[in-house]
Amino acid sequence: GESSMIAAERLLLASALEDPSNQRFVLLSDSCVPLYDFGYIYRYLMTSPKSFVDSFLDTKDKRYTMKMFPVIPKEKWRKGSQWISLIRSHAEVIVNDDTVFPVFQKFCKRSLPLDTRKKWLYLKHRRHNCIPDEHYVQTLLIMRGLESEMERRTVTYTTWNLPAKKAEAKSWHPLTFTSENSGPEEIEEIKRINHVYYESEYRTEWCRANSKPVPCFLFARKFTRGAAMRLLSEGLVESSTDTTTTF
Predict the structure, then answer these.
(1) From which residue to which does the signal peptide run (predicted)?
(2) 48 and 151 in contact (C-beta within 8 Å)?
(3) DSSP bridge partners of 6
(4) Pairing state of beta strands 150-151 and 51-52?
(5) Largest CA distance in the chain
(6) How many CB atoms are located within 10 Å of the residue 226 CB?
(7) pLDDT tens for residues 115-125?
(8) SS (H, E, C) the chain
(9) What is the phi/psi pair of residue 220, to 5°?
């Protein structure tokens, strides 16, 4: 979540760009699993001329600071998942950026303590809290006028543990899939998702690749080792069974 994460992503992309045959760049975590076989994922990403970047306006967002202006105008500030899939030209934009990234390094920093028992001290003093990797790529691509070259959604599924108490609303965490809750029904439920609703924009994003309807997600997280082994042993990672989906 720190700017060092963005720096690491930029280094990874720079290294991958050295090979001209690399045309798509997918960022995943070590707890991600594929929902389909390699051939299906490859066709899904390669036949689309667009990047898949979760990107939206968050009207309740308090992470932007006017200290970022004028380099980053407030109306260009975006939020989204850090799990992205990029076309080559967008990866080059990120690697070559020497304007927006320094502003993130200086003004977009996490300030909330790891010890949630001390969180009230930060809230009392109104410390600014910003999570760089949930904003950088989205904001940069919008600032470069590339929104029309993006599918504004991620291809990596995440579901969240919603806090029971309103006071804990800032402490959401991704739900962890274990061997107990990663069976055929759960996986098929994820595969059937064909749209994403963005409440802050009142926008329904119908999932498409190369202008054709497709399942929204190619990957999912967070899966334990036991959950991943169950997917493999039960053959839950396979080609799409939807014969209407062609690329």
Answers:
(1) none
(2) yes
(3) none
(4) parallel
(5) 57
(6) 12
(7) 555 555 544 44
(8) CCHHHHHHHHHHHHHHHCCCCCCEEECCCCCCEECECHHHHHHHHHCCCCEECCCECCCCCCCCCHHHCCCCCHHHCCECCCCCEEEHHHHHHHHHCCCHHHHHHHHCCCCCCCCHHHHHHHHHCCCCCCCHHHCHHHHHHHHCCCHHHEECCCCEECCEECCCCHHHCCCCEECCECCCCCCHHHHHHHHCCCEEEEHHHCEEEECEECCEECCCCCEECCECHHHHHHHHHCCCCECCCCCCCCC
(9) -145, 155
Whole-number Cα distances in Å, 224 to 26, 31, 82, 227, 234 = 21, 7, 20, 5, 16
> Which residue type sits at 63?
R
Phi/psi of residue 122, each to 5°?
A: -70, -40
**CB-CB neighbours of 229 under 10 Å:** 13
| b/e burial code for range 214-224 (CB count within 10 A of at least 16 → b) | bbbbbbbbbbe
> How much is the pTM?
0.87
- At 171-230, the pLDDT tens digits run 567 899 999 999 999 999 999 999 999 999 999 999 999 889 999 999 999 999 999 999
Task: Say if CB 192 and CB 198 are below 8 A apart.
Answer: no
Q: Tell me the β-bridge partners of 238.
A: 36
C-alpha distances in Å from residue 135, one per residue of 82, 117, 229: 8, 27, 33
Domain definitions of the chain by residue range: 3-233
